[in-house]
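Homework-ish question, so no full write-ups if that breaks the rules, but can someone show me the predicted structure for this set?
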Amino acid sequence: MGNTSQRAVGDSLAGFERLISQERVDAYAEASGDHNPIHLDESYAATTQFGTRIAHGMLSLALVTEMLAKEFPDSWHSGGKIKVRFSAPVFPGETVVTYGKITSIDDSDEGLIATCAIGCKKPDGTDAVAGRATVPLQ
Amino acid sequence: MTVPLISTAVVGHEFGPYDVTIPAERASAYAAAVGGDESPDYGDTLAPILVVAAALTELIENLGLFSGGLQTIHAGQEASWARPVKIGERVNAKGRLAANSVRRGNHFATVAVSYTDSTGAEIGTSSTTIIVSGEES
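A: Not a homework solution, just the prediction itself:
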């Protein structure tokens, strides 16, 4: 990792697992300022369509960006772009897995740009978050 | 019940600017929420997505989506960043309603946000799409 110029189409990114505990959700509420009771208050969340608390979608996205920052430490925060859809909620107690693969490398005015299919899967294999990211390689 | 802004705002409506400066304690909370053995070392900088999340919180409140009875689904998110941001660095976020339509009783809204530093230079952008249901018509 880190030697971004030697990337190739088809390379997988180093995904990782993370248990999304309620403690992590609580900490994310403090970090983001998003104290929506659907994430924090079980009695309120029971009245919603989900029937229980759900993690912030941005928390799952944050895990994906952790993977990208680790894979592309020289460029992710200086030219990285991401576009995702939130497909399914993550419930506290679930372990999610981030994933990514380089799908193309293109020459542009800014140099080589890698496009990656990225996401975060729930325990049943469905995507909680999925989309693509582009990262400068030089 | 107060009518939420999302019911009346038209495309082009501007939000903010919001001060989305992230102090050290919130950066620490982010590390507790997200971090693990695989996490990169950010040093004295932030994960930019935290700045986006802070702006999103302001937008949701501004749109009146914390009103009782409304349920909001975060459907999509885009973000781009031009340079790292330091913990405690002053960042302003200014939003613009890029889309707001009603389909089958649900609002579909997209808000585009520009992030600027203390010099006024743009350091990032984001676009958030939300679906809001439960609104009284």
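Now go work out the reasoning yourself. Hint: The mean pLDDT of chain A is 94.
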